[in-house]
Structures
1.
Amino acid sequence: MMKNLVFLILALLSISATAQSSEVQNTEAPKATVIKQKIKVFPNPATNVVNILGLKNSKHANITISDISGNAVLQRQWAVRNNSVSIPIPNLNAGIYVVRIVSEEQKIQVKFYKN
């Protein structure tokens, strides 16, 4: 009787160990390569224009500025030249904004403050 109980426990442990190792193998996904870009936003806080440096050049970049609540307040399509873009913002109210730049070359999101 004792041998049967020991055998049953060992069998259960063996099955448990096999199940755990196969779960680990199934949940592992290939690691994506992350390339970090150094993006500089200035002046910050801004008054009339916000400059963003460190971008990849693009003929057609969709640029959206959203307020802190996520409401789009400005949307335009600009070309990114010399790895930078200057966005005029004189009509924006003072506050915190998020700039989203989407093109074939990149997807960037940065925050700036408007005085």
2.
Amino acid sequence: MKNQRLASVDALRGLSVAAMLLVNNPGDWGHVYAPLLHAAWHGFTPTDLIFPLFLFIVGVSLALSLGAKVEADAPRAPLARAVLERALRILLLGLALHLFAWWALGKPEFRLFGVLQRIGLCFALAGLVLLYCRARTQWLLLAGLLILHAALLLGGGGLDKAGSLQARIDTALLGRFAYEWDGRLAFDPEGVLSTLGALASCLLGLRAGDWLRRRQLMPLLRLGLAALVVAYLLTPWLPLNKQLWTGSFVLWTGGWACLALVGFHLLVDRRGWPALGRGFGVNAITAYAGAWVMSVALAALGWQTAIYQGWLLPSVGAALGPEAASLAFALLFVLVWAGVARLLDKRGIYIKV
């Protein structure tokens, strides 16, 4: 009943964390290359794949760590307690990071939801689904979530931001504690309704991880291709939209995640290619949280402005333009944390939140 740990999964998780740090920390938000920005509303950019890929890997990791125990009919209560305790720690860490940003940057309001909060919720719910639901039920839950979420969005006021059911729910439940608040209307891309779609991404990873655990790559490959085709066919009625986390977005990003998982498994686990990103992957939440604190501290102390405007903009920016200077800052930020992550891994230090 030992946990299965695959280098390919650590690498894929780690690269998704590195990508998060890259797109979240430009030198200047006014000068960012288009592929490193999220789609403004409907549409898709490479950046839009990062967070769903991480949630997909959360599901894969749950299947690898708990799948054999479930099959061996291990007592469910201790496993469920461990899942819920870890989920709570992740959620509380997310709240603590937002509290630090609110205090250090003098933000007018505290944001309640966020990336780690969403990870914590999805980890808890997907873990319970794995522990208490058979494979067939998991597939039915995944399909039901996609159908329910689409019905709520399409029948609840449309897919524009102001008129969407998601905005109305966020306004009623979050108000000024949402990511966006204009005094009348609230909207949060990690808000209440879109969490249904995010959970579907995690459940898709759960099923993919079960196939990976059994080394059944052809079903995983077929799932990826089928998800891409279905997502493409759905887009005229249900556009790709990360902020709403639409069903087409779940399937589109999940399809690419399945193909990436197959590719990484073949290259890293079977052919022995280097597990690039492993350092980030084995300390993923720690690296994300540490980078968040560093980012807020750099901004609060004025050091980011000093580095970007005083060094990178006059040198890199003068030669290649302000977008290149902004990207250079983000790359330096990632390199610093890549060094930290590699050092922790080399010394066998793994901080589990």
3.
Amino acid sequence: MPHPLALRPGIIALRPLGLGDILDGTIKLIRSNPKAVLGLSAIAALLTSIPLGVGQALITGSGLTTLEDPARSAQAQFEAMVGTMGATLVSYAVQFIVVTLLTGVLTRILGRAVFGGGITASEAWQLSKSRMPALFGVVGLMTLIMAAPLVVFVALMVGLSAAGAGGEGMIGVILLFLLFYIGYYLFVRARFSLASPAVVLEGLGPIAALRRSWRLVTGDFWRVFGIMLLTLLLVQFVSGIMGFPFTAVVTALGSFGAGSATTAVVTGVLLAIGSTISMMVVYPFEAGVAGLLYTDRRMRSEAFDLVLQTAAIEQQRQGWVHASADELWHSDDSARS
């Protein structure tokens, strides 16, 4: 049954949202403020891509060293492996920081874009920087929750190994754990997917935001789960398509390199560029879907659409979107925190 016409001052109609509304609103978020959204996302993507490019250069360099001096093959491969692992860890550390900061700023931009208001990257940062410690707290708690089964798994594998378990038994345990962990990861991600918007828009602390997300998702878990899973698959597909030309060239250079240090540098640069281009779209898309899904759940469970519509009518009467619109996102949980 189609929804009745609703007030649409910004990137979404102020009524409960369907999947198409959420995806369309996310695209409109990017198009309505490309300088702030894509500019910030490009910087974040570049910072996380540089260490990966360095790792690729080390791998290519080890291959060239092997061709020039087969006697150093094992040493070169070991050095490349250590360097690549280090570069990957650095990339994850940088990603943890910059993507968390980016999510906070983009969510603040989204909060104003719902009303049709514009905001610069600098203004969004000034409004969201006080929420960054709580946002890092949410991401840190999520990391611990995600890592908990891995600690149990490692302990189990050590115990089985000490007990002399056979190879087939170990493989069976690994496969069972992988199936369990995929389900666990997706469940936890869906349950707490609305915590970051709650931190930025409602001003909640880390634990309160996780609880808030759990409550908002309750009663509509499978829909939230499906939208988040679809978004995850969609961004991975788009990222792969956008990065494929660069990956193909890197693979070709790695296989048919001319045997010079230039090849290693070029492959690293190409990988960094390809990763930056693909991730600068992925980051705002994921943040946009999470923010609009959070908005939808509040409209469905708290009649929040009526609050937004009343405010939007007043803003249209005044002819502009006042900064006080940010306070409309606050809830009873905000007052208690």
